[in-house]
Structure formats: structure tokens, C-alpha cells
Amino acid sequence: MMNDVVRCCKVCGETANIRRCSKCTQVFYCSQEHQRLDWRSHKRVCHPPGHSPGAASTSVQQPENRVQLPEQGTSESEILSARAEPLANENLDFRELIDEKDKKFLPSTMLVGDSDSRLNVNFRRSLEEQQRLEDLCMNLIRDMNAYGVCVMDKFLGDERGNKVRDEVINMYSAGLFKDGQLVSNKGRRDLRHIRGDKIIWINGKEPGCRNIDYLINQVDSIITIANKMKNNGKLGQYTIRERTMAMVACYPGSGSHYVKHVDNPNRDGRCITAIYYLNPNWDVHQDGGLLRIFPEGSVDQVADIPPLFDRILFFWSDRRNPHEVQPSHRTRYAITLWYLDAKERETALLRYQKEKDCNKINEKNNIVPNT
């Protein structure tokens, strides 16, 4: 007896209220939205029963000299299978870390919620540092509201930035980096024509990563405060308690690049992308490596971000900001953090688990998925 195809949604694994693809009748979806999400990969194998893939087709073909651009960023399985990291010590009241005589000078915008609540950040800062932190948060809120992108220069300072760079170079020199992956690369294809970076995931607590840990804590502070401030605009639409581990990336020159893509095309929880650059004396005209963002809805406008040393960049992780890394002709280093919306992350984890369960059933019944 032949095994029938397991009836579950190809995208989320849902088994209730599913329908077949009307063209090939071989795969199932729970909704038109999920069918649209999967169409980019499914259309390559979607043929009527008995139809030869080599037969004439009415579908629109890409010109031969153009490469179809992926819409997926870093592998979704890497994001969803890994434990999310809590934001750095968000349960300590920063006011407890400041001298009693100085508390009355704290900026009023640091108060959140009702009149008795206080923002929680675990850093022993001077009033000057507190003011700088508040200014950075206000800049983030303003620019993310207006543009969906925010750039901050001289983020850590030369001394600390160079220490972070040294730690990254030490890891790369030790051979700890591996090829980056994509959301849709379930076939383990060679992806170097799509993304040419080498990466390693760390939490900052590893030996020799003290300064990277400091960087992570600084970025956590900005996101935590901006997410809890009053009148914080679009940032207030999210509940951000966790993030991914840090993805440390190296583009090793020789034209290594990352074609136009979206970090989070399928609602996996990532809402803010933060990238810190570690490239002194960078000249995009000679060295390349430009990050180009194509803001959604802007037909003739792009945001060009050179990967300059001690620069940090924030942008929305979803389909609002397709972007590319142009060919790099010199070794290019960056550290990326993705901040997670709690509700979307929870939904994505449930979907991911259903998909894993569905795949296990398929494997048990010797069913090869159509991908």
C-alpha cells in the first residue's frame, strides 16, 4: 500500500482546515497567506499531475542573466531553535546604582509606566553617561518612527571599539567561523553566490569576549529604555524582553557579498536588527562592502550605510527593509543582534514545533517533502 501525503500545512504544520494546492494537489496549506509565503520555493515543483517539468509553461521566467533574489535572511531554524537571550540584567533599578544626592537630577523621561515605576537597567553610570544614554534612546525613537533606520557613530569610542575588534579577529584567526545560512536553505546548497560571509554565534560570556559582552550590554540598554519610554512611537508596539545571541560576521574580501534579502520575512519574532561595525579607515569607493537598504514603498530612494568603525545601525527586521551587502574587497567585520517581539516569537515557536512534528511524521512514512 502506498503511503498518502501527510495532511498538514507546509508552512506551519497545522492539520485543521487545510486545503490542497489546486494545481499540483501534492501539498497543503492552512490559508492563502501561507500559500503565498511558500510560493517562491513551491512554484519550481508545482505542476499538474502527469505534467513534465520540462514541458511548456505559461509562468513568467526571469531573464537568463538575472539571479532570483532571496527574500530570506539568516536561517530561521538557527533563530527559532536557539534559546533566546534575556536582555542584560533588566530587573535591576538603575536608580539604586546612583548616589542619593544625584537622583534628583535624573531626566524625567527615564520614568515609565505609572508614577511609582522606574526603568530597570544594570549599569553604574555617571549623570553624563545617563544623559548620553537618554539622547541615544530619543534619537533611536525619532529615526525609527521617521525612517525605519537609525545610524549612531562613535558608539563605544576608539579604545573600546578596538578591543572589541581585537576579540573578533582572534576568533576569526582561530578558525571558529562557518558559512552563513539562509531561511530557505533546507537542501544545504552552496550559498556563496548569495551570501559570502563567515559567522559565529556567541553570547559574550565566552573566554576572550569581555568587550563584546560590554557592547551587547550597551545595545541592550538602549533597546530596553527606548522600548519602555513614554511616547516612544512605533517601538511601543512591541514587547521586547529577549534577543538572539550575537552573530559575529566576517566578509573575507574577494568580492564576498550578500544579495538583497529580508532578515525576517516569515514573522519569526525578530523586530529590530542592530549591527555594529568594526572597520577602521574604510573607503567604500575602494573597499566596497556598502550596506544598501531599500525602504518599503520608496521606489527611487535607498539608504546607503558605509560599514565604518564604531558605527551602529538599527532598522526594522521585517519586510519594511530589504537590504544587501555589496561586494567587499577588503576584510569586513560586523556584529549583529536581533531583538525579539515576545508575542510574535511565541507564535513562531509554536509554528516551528508543528513543522518539526510534521516533518517527523513525513520521515516515518518515507515521504519526501516537495521543496
UniProtKB/TrEMBL annotation:
Cofactor(s) this protein requires: L-ascorbate
Keyword Zinc-finger: yes
GO biological process, one term: cellular response to hypoxia
Domain Fe2OG dioxygenase: 242-341
InterPro entries linked: HIF_prolyl_hydroxylases, Oxoglu/Fe-dep_dioxygenase_dom, Pro_4_hyd_alph, Pro_4_hyd_alph_FE2OG_OXY, Znf_MYND
Residues covered by the MYND-type domain: 9-46
Molecular function terms, GO-annotated: ferrous iron binding; hypoxia-inducible factor-proline dioxygenase activity; L-ascorbic acid binding; zinc ion binding
Catalytic reactions on record: L-prolyl-[hypoxia-inducible factor alpha subunit] + 2-oxoglutarate + O2 = trans-4-hydroxy-L-prolyl-[hypoxia-inducible factor alpha subunit] + succinate + CO2
Protein name: hypoxia-inducible factor-proline dioxygenase
Lineage: Eukaryota, Metazoa, Ecdysozoa, Arthropoda, Hexapoda
